[in-house]
Amino acid sequence: MSESFLPVRLKTLKPNLYLGFELYIKLPHKMVLYADSNSVLEQSRMESLKAKKVRKLFIKDSDEKNYQEFIDKSLSAIMNNESATIEEKAEVIGDTAENSAEQIFERPQEKSSYLSAQTTSQNLIKYLGENDKLLKSIFNRKLSESDNSPDTLMHKHSLNSAGLIIGFAEFMQVSKDKIEVMGMAGLFHDIAFSLYDKEYKGCFFKKMVELSATELTKYKEHPKLGTELLQDKDYASKELLDYILKHEERIGGNGFPNKLQKLSNEQAIINLCIHYDRFHTCLGMEMAEVFEDINLNQIGNFDLDLIKKFKEFLKNNNLNS
């Protein structure tokens, strides 16, 4: 049986650390070894790859654990570096988290993607809890002109949603044992996006009032389709499946797929955070515009007290302007 490979973003491979795994470049018909497990990637080699517009390299599936250990070392090194700026720290944690999101969307049904999401959620909980300026810096990270595809935008939306959910859940004093899965829901909630063709992927970047009847029908299928991708997996928790299925529900009864009028506190937090970042990241609205829209058009869809708490949370994290 031939070895399968996993893509990793070049941005996640920080220089001057021993890799501990083999690194490959993909050619049209084969994988070519670029660096062995004992290699250290010097800055000059990294710059050379960037100059050649190499965005992804590849590792063997069997090396995924070693890659994750490398990521953990990279994160720990930058987050514990007192001379590193908040922007540099946000860049590293953002790059690694978006790499995880990319893996989730490309291979949503594999256990490795689930475990990657779990690790990413744990890291966000740890590092957001240690620095109250980090969330804003993660949101402020810009996509490069050469890397602004709809898929990449969706990866950013997943990361932003996860960070927002974790931060707001902690602000709302949700129990720690629930926040990890809530963060994973932020990463997984739109995984059905990967099932849509190019025409209908565009639905995720429009307001629902702008969708045609056919587009709206297709778009409303995504929570159920996303749940179905994981529902027969013994490693996928029931809580996560429930969060994915209900992430478009609204207490006014006009959400979907089941027009629910009652949500748990955790689900309400998830849904409000996802809504906020969808309007910001996917629809391109300024943060202040999004919150104004929530105040004007979403009263009745979200609990008023929750909206007030969310406004306080956004202000505390400078995410309302």
Task: Summarize the helices and strands and which ones pair or pack.
Blueprint lengths: L4 E5 L13 E5 L2 E6 L7 H9 L4 E5 L3 H16 L6 H21 L4 H20 L3 H7 L9 H22 L4 H13 L9 H4 L11 H7 L2 H9 L7 H9 L18 H18 L4 H11 L6 H13 L5
Antiparallel strand pairs: 1-4, 2-3
Strand content: 5-15%
Largest sheet: 2 strands, antiparallel
Structural class comes to: mainly alpha
Strand order of the largest sheet: 1-4
Succession of helices and strands: EEEHEHHHHHHHHHHHHH
Low-confidence segments, given as residue ranges, are none
Please describe what this structure looks like:
The protein is mostly helical. It has 14 helices and four strands. The chain has helices at 43-51, 64-79, 86-106, 111-130, 134-140, 150-171, 176-188, 198-201, 213-219, 222-230, 238-246, 265-282, 287-297, 304-316, and strands spanning 5-9, 23-27, 30-35, 56-60. It has a two-stranded antiparallel sheet with strand order 1-4. It has a two-stranded antiparallel ribbon with strand order 2-3. Strand 2 and strand 3 (30-35) form a beta hairpin.
